[in-house]
Design brief:
By secondary structure, the chain is an alpha+beta fold. The chain contains 7 helices and 19 strands. The chain has helices spanning about 75-85, 110-115, 175-185, 190-200, 230-245, 260-275, 285-295; strands at about 5, 10-15, 25-30, 35-45, 45-50, 55-60, 65-70, 70-75, 90-95, 120-125, 130, 135-140, 140-145, 150-160, 165-175, 190, 215, 250-260, 280. The strands form 5 sheets. Strands 11, 12, 13, 14, 15, 18 and 19 form a 7-stranded mixed β-sheet that branches. Strands 2-3-9-4-5 form a 5-stranded mixed β-sheet, with helices on one face. The protein has a 3-stranded antiparallel β-sheet with strand order 6-7-8, with no helix packed on it. Strand 16 (about 190), helix 4 (about 190-200) and strand 17 form a beta-alpha-beta unit. Helix 1 packs across helix 5 and helix 5 (about 230-245) runs parallel beside helix 6. It starts with a strand and ends in a 16-residue tail after the last helix. The model is unreliable at about 300-310 (pLDDT under 50). Bound molecules: zinc ion.
């Protein structure tokens, strides 16, 4: 079978929150099989445990925010994307502020953190959510569709009325290696006029050229330029990997978005979970695994399986 995973050893990371500007400390600890990903948000004497599930999503306007009992954790998507790509099913995350640290605006620091933590498999089979019927969510000109696939595939199209971005398209079949190389380095981006507006409203206080690509009227303001010519659409894919992890199980399906964002990603996950006839749980036997290994398919993270049963 494919076993569930957690991290091998406890690791810590600190950094500022994009919106609050606060310095935030976060500790990732191994968790038992069946725990899922759980944030333990502390404020003063209080600690509230918030499962990283779509049922706990309370806001998707600027970032994906989960909350419970009056405490919340914002901007979980880059960390969640890295956990998904590494196949981590179970984890405790202690956090002492309202946001996951933004770090450099990409998932690369989380990749380094998980490499430091290492992986440990747990004695329980991992369940996958295999999409069986196509689904679509339309919200104005934004659109998301999900169709059956033997892999976890993502395709994103974006279109901005700005010469630095214009139209970008990218399609990926997710694996740990692909994520680390092609998606994790892609940074958050924003337009200078929006950043100024957010700052005037007490948001984006921690935002700087150190943790986001900032787009001026005619050019990118970051002196180092872009990490990829299509960094923007790559970041959309990175966000989607994190947002779709809130289904609670790794997905085997092909998700396509047009002008996508946290809001429509969340709507799609909710629609999926509300329609059990559109998917089923799949687990893999030793024989399936043998076949996959024989076919040269890497199976450790389990995000890149090519098997015949789906
Ligand atoms: Zn993002």
């Amino acid at each position: 079978m494919i076993f569930q995973c957690t991290i091998h050893q406890t690791v810590m990371i600190s950094g500022v929150g994009l919106h609050s500007g606060q310095r935030i400390n976060m500790t990732l600890r191994p968790a038992e099989a069946g725990t899922g990903i759980v944030f333990h948000r502390t404020e003063g004497e209080r600690t509230v445990s918030i499962e990283a599930l779509s049922t706990n999503v309370i806001d998707t306007r600027l970032a994906t925010v989960i909350g419970k009992s009056g405490l919340s954790v914002s901007t979980i998507e880059h960390l969640m994307a890295a956990l998904t790509a590494f196949g981590i099913d179970n984890l405790h995350i202690d956090i002492d502020g309202p946001e996951v640290p933004i770090l450099d605006g990409s998932a690369l620091p989380y990749v380094a953190l998980l490499e430091q933590a290492g992986l440990r498999s747990l004695p329980r089979s991992r369940k996958y959510l295999a999409v069986r019927k196509p689904m679509t969510v339309i919200d104005g000109e934004k659109r998301a569709t999900m169709i059956p696939s033997r892999f976890f595939r993502l395709t994103a199209d974006i279109a901005f009325d700005h010469p630095c971005i214009a139209q970008q398209h990218r399609s990926v079949k997710l694996s740990t290696e692909l994520f680390c190389r092609d998606l994790a380095p892609a940074r958050t981006f924003g337009f200078l006029r929006e950043v100024e507006f957010l700052k005037a409203n007490g948001l984006a206080r921690g935002g700087s050229l150190e943790n986001a690509v900032v787009i001026g009227e005619e050019r990118i303001l970051n002196p180092e330029g872009l990490r990829f010519s299509d960094e923007f659409v790559r970041h959309k894919l990175l966000d989607a990997v994190g947002d779709f992890s809130l289904a609670g199980f790794p997905i085997l399906g092909h998700i396509k978005t047009f002008k996508g964002g946290h809001d429509i990603n969340h709507q799609m996950v909710e629609q999926l979970l509300a329609a059990p006839e559109a998917w089923r749980f799949v687990e893999f036997s030793d024989r399936d695994l043998e076949e996959a290994l024989h076919a040269g398919v890497p199976v450790f993270a389990g995000t890149d399986l090519a098997l015949h049963k789906i």
